[in-house]
Fold these 2 entries.
Entry 1:
Amino acid sequence: MHKTTVEQWQVLRTVIVSGGYSRAAERLNRSQSSVSYTIAQLQDRLGAELVVVEGRKVRLTEAGAALLRDAAPLIAQFEALEARAGALAKGAQASLRLAIDSAYPKRPLFAVLRDFAERFPHTQVDLVEIIRLGAREARARSDLAIVFQAGDVLEEHRLRDVELIAVAHCRHPLLTRSAAGLTTADLGGHLQVALVDGRDPDRAAGLSGRRFWSVNTLEAAREAVLSGLCFGWLPEETIADLLDAGELRRLPLSFGARRSIPLSLVLADAGTAGPATRALAAMILERDGTRGSHPPSRPAGLIPPDQEGDAGGSGPFAPE
Amino acid sequence: MHKTTVEQWQVLRTVIVSGGYSRAAERLNRSQSSVSYTIAQLQDRLGAELVVVEGRKVRLTEAGAALLRDAAPLIAQFEALEARAGALAKGAQASLRLAIDSAYPKRPLFAVLRDFAERFPHTQVDLVEIIRLGAREARARSDLAIVFQAGDVLEEHRLRDVELIAVAHCRHPLLTRSAAGLTTADLGGHLQVALVDGRDPDRAAGLSGRRFWSVNTLEAAREAVLSGLCFGWLPEETIADLLDAGELRRLPLSFGARRSIPLSLVLADAGTAGPATRALAAMILERDGTRGSHPPSRPAGLIPPDQEGDAGGSGPFAPE
DNA sequence: GTATTTCTATCGAAATTTTCGATGGAAAGG
DNA sequence: CCTTTCCATCGAAAATTTCGATAGAAATAC
């Protein structure tokens, strides 16, 4: 099957870096003859010369140098694998499924995840982003979730609201008119982009016949607005730079120009949650939590009040 | 030192993919007890449970699944390492140093290198790009070289010339004048970009007091022209798309709007060149060689004739 | 419900591999 | 020229791995 072992390569590496069999033997706590035997064995198995002994010095052959360059990262990875195994043996959590609503801003999330990765280097994070993440589906598919609407789960913590802002490209017709306020009626004639989970045919169908286009990702929604094709409500954090640059401008809506999206952090199963899950939850809350954990009350203003509740409704988030 | 071996992980993998110890034993040509022992050993050494036997089925634990996912690519890489070792043992060439003059177009080069990598998967290519690669330095630092000027080496093969074209940004003042021909005198007042090896202070100094800016890379030269700051002579292939798009335009020079750079392929040491070196040489020639190998004649028009030999001289390539 | 098949765990013996200390010879340094 | 340092090799001892046999547990067949 395998002709060589990682250990043999590791011995070779030690011989090279320490500059000789004897020193390597010392460093490896072995006899010199053992090191000699190991190198000889490695070369025999491969049928290739890796080192040449020139008098008192050990030098790599060309092949040896090339192979050791390849082997070095392998050795490191192998040690990392064993380190992870050791951590998991001591009870570390192997992986953590994190589901987030797509409106949740990525930059602070990844800032937290970076810290998390340092504190839990052996726990792998599987991140799933979902358009309108509800608590029920979140619980099914994740250990920890940032959901749009919770309200019926025990371990729930309110996070800072995400602000959606009605924007359009700076040369969009809606903005070339009077600088005065727009009403939702004014929006009717223009194309709006809505963020809709493509796997959900019902929601998508709910938009038919309207002047909605639906997209699947926040990125696409932003581009749709940026192109001038559509207007839409986009999360403030994702377009702050574009607003500053003047490429996008806020729509001067007399009502509903801003909408708050209430997000909550939910532990899928508080009973079995591992230490890494709990720590990540704490880290997210420390950064984004509102002070104190709210009781599971239905968050106010799920869909902000609207004159017609139709034409101007729902922002990039599809109506229910 | 190391607690486990790649072989143990490989056995674990085989157990999982074949769905049992017995089947794995069969596939590995071992006894079932040996497989059982290996898995037990692996788990003992790690102190972690990787698999659980549920009745007749073998299932990975969460830790086992996580670790095996990490181990799988390691196993593959390890086998690749041994495969390479086998190839090198059979005389394959470990590596090949290829030096090219920076004017040589990269796209066809990498097309050739892709084919090369398929035919010689175990030979690593170290590519060095040098601004004005002469034959002497090339020989010192490479097995194979594409040089600007050869003329005194035995194994030399002429390649297709690279065409330098005088260009500027479409809104550059040189282009907003009359559409009629420019003379080199017209260029005097404008900034030219020259490609100069930064490590060569002499060449750089030779430009002082002129309206030259020097850059280190072709990429930078292109951007300098693209920004409208400079005009310059750039290799045709690297700016073909920009010319098509209209961003850059040719300078209507009455003379010297195009310059040919003669390039040659040189084998540094024909005697000791390995099979991969020879094959790559053949592949490059097949693609880019002029018909037949030319005798080592001094290539004509090293620096194309120029009225003044000064203001308009040298293109992006610094004068000697 | 019982018999049969299929599977893994484990045991002792055998085979293989690895390690060790000792020794010899080659090269470098004093 | 002598001493030191270093690697190759040898035989013996130690450790590891493999094997076949067997026992027990779980699924399947009857």
Note: The interface with chain A takes residues 1-7, 9-10, 28, 46-48, 62-63, 65-67, 70-71, 74, 77-82, 84-86, 88-89, 94-95, 124 of chain B (CB under 8 Å).
Entry 2:
Amino acid sequence: MRRMTARPANTHQARLLRLLRDGGPNSRAQLGDRIDLSRSKLAVEVDRLLETGLVVADGLAASRGGRRSHNIRLAPQLRFLGVDIGATSVDVAVTNAELEVLGHLNHPMDVREGPVAVFEQVLVMAAKLRASGLAEGFDGAGIGVPGPVRFPEGVPVAPPIMPGWDGFPVREALSQELGCPVMVDNDVNLMAMGEQHAGVARTAGDFLCVKIGTGIGCGIVVGGEVYRGTTGSAGDIGHIQVEPDGRACACGNRGCLEAHFSGAALARDAEDAARAGQSAELAARLEAAGKLTAVDVAAAAAAGDPTALDLIREGGNRVGQVIAGLVSFFNPGLVVIGGGVTGLGHNLLASVRTQVYRQSLPLATGNLPIVLGELGPAAGVTGAARLISDHLFSPA
Amino acid sequence: MRRMTARPANTHQARLLRLLRDGGPNSRAQLGDRIDLSRSKLAVEVDRLLETGLVVADGLAASRGGRRSHNIRLAPQLRFLGVDIGATSVDVAVTNAELEVLGHLNHPMDVREGPVAVFEQVLVMAAKLRASGLAEGFDGAGIGVPGPVRFPEGVPVAPPIMPGWDGFPVREALSQELGCPVMVDNDVNLMAMGEQHAGVARTAGDFLCVKIGTGIGCGIVVGGEVYRGTTGSAGDIGHIQVEPDGRACACGNRGCLEAHFSGAALARDAEDAARAGQSAELAARLEAAGKLTAVDVAAAAAAGDPTALDLIREGGNRVGQVIAGLVSFFNPGLVVIGGGVTGLGHNLLASVRTQVYRQSLPLATGNLPIVLGELGPAAGVTGAARLISDHLFSPA
DNA sequence: AGGCTTTGTCCTGAGTGTGGAGAAAGTTGG
DNA sequence: CCAACTTTCTCCACACTCAGGACAAAGCCT
């Protein structure tokens, strides 16, 4: 099957494609209300898009008191691949042009196995999605990796938790294998874009998206656009010092946020508490599974275990302390918290909120929602699809 | 005398005006090299600007091997007023359209005397500058205040150190008095814009500008544009907590950065040290003046006084610790340090650098200059002039 | 059936912008 | 001093963009 070859010829067409992506099917008249163009000009550009095949007119909508309108929509056979490489698992999903997830696979895998092994797995999963009939091919792919990325080239740089990936040409390699355009970004940025597209951040202009998984990172959105910093490492808050002479961190320093609270740190603390006999609940789970994860701590907390609750509360205080500083500095309109520890839920959220509302000035916190992400694992892959669609839906 | 009434009619004209402002006089050909327009279209827009009087063609430049070019420049009689309200003094300056400071006055004054008294003083100073022949009137004015500002309206909101200003219609009032357009911003943002226009940040895209005066604030520039946050309080880093249960701060919290280090805190610490007999040098100065300021500490340090050096070092460590966190988060391409304590100079800078380079990841600090601002008190007023010129040099 | 509404198409005219021809004004070398 | 060349600037013809109005198509309601 022939995949998408055309690109919008000008900014009007690009804007129309994004309107259709974000707003679903529309009539020409509805599009006209949302774009600053005359009806005549709009009609010309829509016609050109129809010619390219990027957009189709299928069927008529119900009348709204007059002539029925044509349904203009993005070509229904368009498919994007969203890939989210986490520290301990890989998510791969296929979406349509409106970025709705049609199929989603997850596979546990350590990112430290290196790019070659991970890519092999990604391609297997992509093939599986294709075989299931959800896609005959991919028109573009977005991929997120858990570390800083030199964005224009799509190459990870100096990633602390995935040393084997340093300088690996992710974009080029995946583009070769899949035969379609590929864009690469930090996994946290993709989560932010996912929540922006279909989650809690739909209406936010400036917001922060804190992802707490194995590590901790923060997506920064300024005026609707992801901010990546000068070298692509913006949002790398896991190594902000929260305790002078605190715990040793993998990065070589002491007292980093990540060393004191993250999915990995929480699991370790829980295991320590279990072995020290502080919690029968956690000890039982450790006995059963041989190890503990953030999910176990969440379950123990839900069961009312005071040690687990303490661990979560203390962790929330740590993150909250850092977020309070970021809120003072950045003055966002929204803070989203997501990642693997979302299961810790409102216990975590409560202590984060307490810290932020107590430590930041009222002007910055007065009208500041601090909420959990609502997309869960779909945030990353949705964001990945949005990344590549942003790229393809802009003039060549 | 008639002041500037015309505004650029389109974005081309606006871009031309800014090119002339930032690059000085130019021929049509030189302008053509810096703008993406054909020579013919360029000529048309330049002619229209000449008609409005915003731009003049005076004289011919030396030949560069062919026909001599006309010097195109901004109207030489254009005048902007730059006002920088500090916590303890007021700066007022007049600039030409290229934002060169033609005259600059400073007057010690406590901002807590309130907007009415301060405005009176500002108008006296503006009149003095006019009387000296530097200006016959003002085509626009920019004004900075030491607190958050609701930018679109030009109104201070909930400013901690200047309670009497809350909600005072600064923009409207000053515009009435001066009879010209006025824009209002936070003083820190103006310092950033000043250093961006004519100082160390001329080539920086994303940078931070930390101003340490009576308080501490931080200007944030993203892609060349000042970022002000959702409620105008972005960069308000003075109340980030640096020590749990630390010193009491005027804001009601404990352990704020500003309480531990700032011009005010430094002066107080120095006085305490002098009274405690820890430093003969500082004691002598306290004796002489009845009080100490950051300038005294700088002088004592320059004279080799170890107590003063310690105070500066310790303060630098505090700020450095916060800046390290911001660098990890924001990944700027440059950090500028300015404000009243610039006199502490390289002693301060050294400890800030040590903290940042030690605590932040190499990817973020690898190529990160941390430098002192080079404009001193001119940064604020230059930034103020730039603020209003940005406003006037954009389509109406 | 007739009037009204909504949707979509067509056409004209104003304005925007490009590129080339060429005039104006200078330098350089013989 | 003249011819050749360079740089700067102006003028003009042509293509393209885009808005707005007229009008046709297709529906609803009475």
Note: Residues 37-41, 44, 60, 63-68 of chain B lie near DNA strand C (CB under 10 Å from a C1').
